[in-house]
Amino acid sequence: MEGLTGARTNLNLRNVPMKVYKEARRKGDLGTMEREMGYAGDFTEKAEEYRKKADEGMQEEAKEEK
Predict the structure, then answer these.
(1) Residues ≥6 apart with Cβ < 8 Å to 50
(2) CA–CA distances in Å: residue 24 to residues 10, 20, 29, 38
(3) Mean pLDDT over residues 27-44, rounded?
(4) 8, 53 in Cβ contact below 8 A?
(5) 7 phi and psi, to 5 degrees?
(6) At 65, is the pLDDT very low, low, confident or very high (cuts 50, 70, 90)?
(7) Closest alpha carbon to 34 in 17, 13, 12
(8) Please, what is the end-to-end C-alpha distance for the chain in angstroms?
(9) How many alpha carbons fall within 13 Å on the CB side of residue 22?
(10) CB of 39 within 8 A of CB of 15?
(11) 5-26 pLDDT per residue, tens
């Protein structure tokens, strides 16, 4: 359960820096664009880690049910 919740939360959190990135792109602010892409990448990586944890948990659960 932790894996699914963590993955979804981090994907939602990624939306914030993406909105800031889009606003900075309209203004032509390259520094802010780069910084926000870094934040978005961090959240994406964390979401992937949680997704892997969820996959492992579901595999274990499937083994237990067999």
Answers:
(1) 2, 3, 4, 5, 6, 7, 10
(2) 22, 6, 5, 14
(3) 95
(4) no
(5) -65, -45
(6) confident
(7) 17
(8) 20
(9) 5
(10) no
(11) 888 898 889 999 999 999 999 9
- Structural tokens at position 17: 């820096």
Q: Mean of the per-residue pLDDT values for the chain?
A: 90
pTM: 0.74
One DSSP character per residue, 15-30 reads HHHHHHHHHHHHHT-H
* Cα gap 57→43, rounded to integer Å: 21
Phi, psi values for residue 32, rounded to 5°: -65, -40
